[in-house]
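Reviewers asked in the last cycle whether our approach scales beyond single polypeptides. To address this, we selected a multi-component target totalling 274 residues and predicted its structure end to end. The input consisted of the following lines:
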Amino acid sequence: MSAPTPEPGTGSPAGTAIALDLTGRTALVTGAAGGIGRACALRLAAAGARVRAVDRAADGLAALAEEAAAIPGLPGTVVPETLDLTDLDAAEAVAAGTDILVNNAGIQLVRPLEEFPPEVFHTVLTVMLEAPFRLIRGALPHMYAQGWGRIVNISSVHGLRASPYKSAYVAAKHGLEGLSKTAALEGAPHGVTSNCVCPGYVRTPLVERQIADQAAAHGLPEDRVLTEVLLRDSALKRLIEPAEVAEAVLYLCTPGAAFVTGTSLTLDGGWTAH
Ligand code: NAD
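The resulting structure, written as structure tokens, was:
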């Protein structure tokens, strides 16, 4: 499996970087300490944005801020803000004043329905659906006042398709798709777009952590999980890189995407073409 070559300073796959100047814009990215959120924070900062990186993992945020500060000539900045999004009042408050909101934080548990712990179901829905609602609610007054805003919700193929043993995750992502469409309808008269980005399996810690659970749930050895479970329905037989997802997020913030709202940009290697 070969990874695309990152372009210096952007983390973008070579030859695909979008030119966009976000100087003067503030972007808030949740779940920014690792994986897709980290890639989005660096990409938006490479486009000039002042990025507020929110996560419960303070160490990961500090490492991200250090990494950003060490990139020569990075046009934007990355400011770490430690927050657990299960504190919904704090989540709503932190979103005030942002021009771009990337709802990305997420968690996963792979377990059959009859064994799925109800308290974990509740937490997944809180972090991945209720917190995005509260963050959008907190962000809209500023976006409406200035007549411009971009909401990008990191959904998943699992916002469009179900897989066994992922009841909470699939429910949360399907809910996020509905929330995003509603925000698009309400935001349109105010210059605010809202869209989902729906990746297939991305090379991140969230995926690495579920290999053992998937192996147990499907009764397979771990080395067969990637090809026989995760990539079974993908026409492109590789994981997608976080930087490729970040490029799609950036696209939705470009002037060329001003008419794109209420939709889902699917990056699934052909999974949903079946
Ligand atoms: P990740 O585990 O690498 O990163 C998720 C981040 O969210 C972590 O830094 C974690 O600390 C943070 N987070 C979790 N709970 C939080 C909370 N209560 N408060 C604050 N921060 C919290 O995962 P990732 O793969 O980068 O996933 C990011 C998003 O992309 C998720 O919404 C996920 O569902 C989605 N996604 C991932 C994949 C994939 O294959 N990795 C595919 C499709 C969609």
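Residues 118-146 form the longest helix (29 residues). We regard this as preliminary and will revisit it once experimental data from Aim 1 are available.
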